[in-house]
Amino acid sequence: MKKKAVIFDMDGVLVDSESVYLQLFRTFLEENQCVIDETLLHTLAGASSQRTWEIVAQMWKEEITPQEMRTLYKKDHPSYEIPYKEILYPGVKDLLVWLKQERFVTAIASSSSEESIQEMLRETELSSLFDCYVSGKWFKNSKPDPEIYLYTLDKLGLPAGDCIVVEDSAYGIQAAKAAGLTVAAVKDTKFGADQSAADYLIDRTCELKGLLELQFLYY
Questions:
Q1: pTM for this prediction
Q2: Which residues, 6+ apart, have CB-to-CB distance to 183 below 8 Å?
């Protein structure tokens, strides 16, 4: 069945931001003489904001609530600009240009804040290549809850069968599948994400073009 739209996660799919975030937390914990559990640290990839602070709090040197952990971290790191242009994955812009040429609708459905999505689009100059974006911060529950994808489908005015999602984390894949969507997962070689629920695996985001040409573009 021909697909009409591609919905992209952002972190780990369009930009290599997850590695940046993890290093920030790693450095913060090291500077505060905390013992880092790398396996636990890697579960931050794709986690909701609430889950992120729960995980970091588990590695703190003394008992602390997730909210206290967030407050303490924000005090030490009031702001940090992610170098989105530098960490844009190779071939992503060319893929998006091709999708537009082939008349695909394109969207972003990310757990990141609206401000982060806007900053990424501005720095990478990709704004004109997306029809819309949706932030997980708009909803009560984050991925793996399917609400963000159900909302995106409604915003696009398309049924799930007309769309394919590009994800990387277990949380994101679970959310997309729960919304009835076809999922192409970008292979995770860093964080050990369980991607077994995905319909397809691709080595890099830009390889989506070949998958669409082979499976969904012509019929």
A1: 0.90
A2: 164, 165, 166, 167, 173, 176, 177, 197, 198, 199, 200
